[in-house]
Write a structure and sequence with these properties.
Largest sheet: 7 strands, mixed
Helix content: 40-55%
Strand content: 15-25%
Radius of gyration: 22 Å
Strand order of the largest sheet: 9-10-8-7-13-14-15
Number of helices: 16
Structural class: alpha+beta
Length: about 400
């Protein structure tokens, strides 16, 4: 049964994605039919843990949004999608809000863990939705950039905001009755790690001798390189891309304008700037869909880098802040549990009481002007190279 891509986006708020759960269910049904026939329930990893703890088959809206079986605007399973995919609704758990109590600990689990049978188990959240709570991104105008293996620009919205072109993802947020919109860069911190692992043994050895983090040494040297990396531009498409160029037929690991005079630190800065350009692409598309960002938080391993935060602030043209608490998603999950147990009356109240700002990196206007020019060239490089690399991939 065929459902037009546009209708799929209207219901699930995202284009069909092979990495999300619906496609995986279909793969199992097509390739391992004997296993599919044995299925009684389909659960996400954290929801399996919930089942073990409570005996309840349930999920919550933020994580379920990534299954592509959820009616994201209405926060419930989509009968239309399930009918088109021929998936039995009874296989799926009950959908809760992220801060709702979903059950209590079973007697045998209480005995094994030392918890009481009155211990409540709350909905919880997906990784980015929990990170939003743990960094205070719980009201309109707030957003965060995380630089881990991948990179994410994530904005809160009290309204359903869907990109009809499917360039960014819209999901239910962990705050009841709200949503979030996010763009994803596949190889963010991974780009820097790739370059470090393959070309920076000298940095690794120096870090071991001095007993320091190798990335601290890299940041030290990168800070001395001017904006623009001596006109060297890096395209961070190590593993294809999700925003804004969804797909795998992309230019990969490209450095433009390489010259013998370019030092290793310049290559390293170009890698970080290339990732920042890609994250700026994400933020621009969020703006195109009507999401306004006035306050940007930074988190993830790369978010600890003052150099990377300055690049982001200069590109975004707004302050990039951090919170004192370093727990991120884990703290967000704890806040949701606190709300579910009645310690706080809302997610927003809990964040206001628990979170404290640590730093604020202000944009430098001169850098912003330069970076916007380099970003335009960065975008044109993709357009110029994509057809050549499709042909190269076919050889």
């Amino acid at each position: 049964k065929i459902m037009p891509r546009e209708r799929w986006i209207e219901i699930t708020a995202n284009p069909p994605l092979t990495g999300w759960t619906a496609a995986k269910i279909l793969w199992v049904r097509n390739h391992e039919p004997e296993n599919y026939e044995r299925c009684k329930h389909i659960l996400l990893p954290k929801d399996y843990i919930r089942y073990i703890l409570t005996g309840v088959f349930a999920t919550e809206v933020s994580d379920a949004s990534g299954m592509q079986l959820l009616d994201v605007p209405n926060r419930c399973w989509s009968d239309e999608v399930l009918e088109k995919l021929n998936i039995d609704k009874s296989l799926l758990g009950k959908v809760y809000e992220s801060c709702e109590v979903t059950g209590t600990v079973l007697p045998d689990i209480a005995e094994k863990t030392g918890l009481s049978t009155g211990t409540k188990v709350v909905g919880g959240a997906g990784d980015n939705a929990a990170a939003a709570v743990g960094t205070g991104v719980v009201k309109d105008g707030t957003a965060f950039t995380t630089i881990g293996t991948s990179g994410v620009v994530f904005a809160h919205s009290s309204q359903v905001t869907i990109d009809p072109l499917g360039r960014v993802h819209t999901c239910c947020a962990a705050v009841p009755g709200t949503w979030h919109v996010m763009g994803v860069t596949q190889a963010a911190g991974l780009s820097l790690k790739w370059f470090k692992d393959n070309f920076c043994q000298d940095y690794v050895e120096e870090a071991e001798r001095e007993g320091v983090d190798v990335y601290d040494l890299i940041n030290r040297d990168i800070a001395q390189i001017p904006v623009g990396s001596d006109k060297l531009i890096y395209l961070p498409y190590l593993m294809g891309e999700r925003t804004p160029h969804f797909g795998s037929g992309l230019p990969r690991r490209i450095f433009s304008d390489c010259r013998p005079s370019i030092r290793k630190a310049i290559f390293l800065r170009a890698v970080m700037e290339g990732v920042a350009y890609s994250l700026f692409d994400c933020s621009k598309i969020l703006g195109d869909t009507g999401v306004k960002i006035t306050e940007m938080m930074a988190c993830g391993g790369g978010g600890k880098s003052p150099v990377w935060r300055q690049m982001l602030a200069d590109l975004y043209g707004c302050p990039v802040k951090t919170v004192k608490q370093q727990e991120g998603p884990a703290l967000g999950a704890a806040i949701l549990a606190g709300v579910g147990c009645g310690i706080y009356n809302s997610v927003e109240t809990a964040c206001g009481r628990l979170l404290r700002m640590s730093s604020s990196t202000e944009p430098e206007e001169e850098n912003t002007v330069l970076y916007r020019q380099f970003h335009c060239l960065y975008q044109r490089l993709y357009s110029s190279l994509k057809e050549d690399f499709k042909e190269l991939a076919g050889l």
